[in-house]
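Progress against Task 2.4 (sequence-to-structure conversion) is shown through the following example record, which the project officer requested during the mid-term review.
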Amino acid sequence: MAVIASAPGKVLMTGGYLILERPNAGIVLSTNARFYAIVKPLSEEINPESWAWGWTDVKLTSPQLLRESLYKMSLKNLTIQCVSSSESRNPFVENAVQYAVAAAYAIFDKNKKDVLHKLLLQGLDITVLGCNDFYSYRNQIEALGLPLIPEQLAALPAFLSISFNAEESNGENCKPEVAKTGLGSSAAMTTAVVSALLHYFGVVNLSSSEDQLQEKKNSSDLDMVHVIAQSAHCIAQGKVGSGFDVSSAVYGSQRYIRFSPEVLSSAQVAMKGLPLQEVIVDIVKGKWDHERTKFSLPPLMTLLLGEPGTGGSSTPSMVGAVKKWQKSLETWRKLSELNSALEAQFQMLSKLAEEHWNAYKCIIESCSKHKSEKWIEQASEPIQEAVVKSLLGARDVMLGIRYHMRQMGEAAGVPIEPESQTQLLNATMNMEGVLLAGVPGAGGFDAIFAIVLGDSGSNVTKAWSSLNVLALLVREDPRGVSLESCDPRTREITLAVASVHIE
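Structure tokens generated for the chain above:
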């Protein structure tokens, strides 16, 4: 029986760079772009003599990369060895498998261990699939001379194979690079694989997305997924990052404060040869002191992402440059205050929506048709005025955040908000119905985001197109990891067939 789990990509709206250090918080939105992991046995039967085997087979298929990797996994020390070509290795999935299996062995009693051993001897067949939104298809659309509009992305087949930039301009082959949109594909993939495996082994019992919408009954199960996915992801990356991308992949949209890096020191030691079963107990019982608070955008607000097509930025090298720069504590303190202020304005707007829905809905719809300087004129009663004041407050705070991020970038010598992005963001914030705009995460040339009011999104995407920006299909979806009832590829085909109108 196959187990299918999915985990969302992310957009870090506030907290870029600061989120690397406790106790700074960041607001991270999870998205409708999801990574899927399908886990099933490689063979239905076990050879009666196979109990003597000290290893099992693992097959990893990545249809979008047209790759299939074969591994042997030692059931004694849980190491995994690639037996197909080394080019097809995926360190994120390799670590996800090792850590998930080690967690099951560490937690289970003797009887459950025997069942697990039997399950593993059937082999593991793992397939990973990422929504098209994780990858950039801008170059293909431009090469065909088609307009840069989201409809072109919507027309692409689901889970399209990803083209590689396998040649440098001088004709030499280089390491294949997949053009990405910065939604955190490695964190979403690692989380999807870990959650599918832990559910398959019976370590956790995940809920489906339908159950999630009603109530989260499985918080301890999600905590287990989080700890294992966070560990596997950090080891695969070769460094202990802030972990906001894995946290949002597990729990969904949130306000996040990072864990103390020391909690993973035993995992880093394991890289030097300590048995993984011992390490995993330390990790699971470790003091995970990250903090997260539920967060999602107030009603009638939409997240938009745009791809400017000025070439990607290397997040690790930008983070390194900012770390090397002797940071101005004043700039960091100010940014931290502004990030909290933006969160407070969003909370106020959510509260006003909850308590005065009709007035809130009416004023948001009015503001969606006007530029920000005309919003206050739309308010005809005190509640509507309070909503507009909060909207304008959020705008001012965002302008402050952008100003200090630019200052930090200039001082550190990295393009956090390059001049081309500044012009684009200013133009965006000047459009009807746009609440705010910025560069997500570490900034650079990768993408821009906007939060828009009511139905103003379609006008913004058209305006972006005229500015040579491709609006992506990504939206906020506050759900975290979830169990899926069927292979997403068959669902996409069903949806496509359902959308065909026969005259």
